[in-house]
Amino acid sequence: MKIIYTENYEVMSAVTAQLIAAQIYRKPDCVLGLATGSTPLGTYAELIRMHRSQNLNFSKVRTVNLDEYKGLSPDSDQSYAYFMRENFFRHINIRPENTHVPNGLNPDEDAACSCYERLIDDLGGIDLQLLGIGHNGHIGFNEPDDTFIMDTHAESLTEKTVRMNARFFERIEDVPTRAYTMGIGQIMAAKTVILIANGADKAETMARFAERTIDPHFQGSILHAHRNAYVIADKAALSILIKQAPQLISNR
Ligand code: GLP
Question: Would the pTM of this model clear 0.90, i.e. be above it?
């Protein structure tokens, strides 16, 4: 795993978008694993700009999203399917049938999850997986736990996650408490993983990478074991880590 320092959110987003664009140039029909949350918005905006000004071509790209709230329809404006359409897909030349998000409307958890696993297998696995990170270290919706769960599964969201994600909903009671998420096995099977983080409120979260141990109570720590994982973070998010373990940051 390599940790890359960037000066601010704009640079973090631009560097990430360039790595994703390079993946698309290398393999036009690549499978991109995508993430939601506020962190990747700048990356998506930059990719849209590259599509418009540099003809970055998404016509053969396939995508699989990390997660979806259980119980939300793709038309609900709080769903991750809606988020992806509004913030990314409708601005580029991707074919809607090539974009995939777990089916939040399937009440049968086992069926919803095994169907998503099969889909990822059928696509041939993920070439590049983009990740954000929750304040408690979650990736996708893999919450802190005593173990890493490998497969796609239904996860009960922690109180903290529900509170953090309430900013996207009108009332905290509206935040679903269960979600479908890709498991750690699928994330780790991606050929390349890029985790992005910005802002001072992520500084304590990022400082946990200094421990260098792989600990399911900090799910992001699994990336220490990935051969081709990049953590791209801005100055504010790295402000504690850079003091505690400067040697972990590859470009400082
Ligand atoms: C949600 C998503 C994660 C995301 C996290 C952080 O819980 N399931 O995939 O990484 O939020 O969100 P933000 O980027 O807004 O900090």
Answer: yes
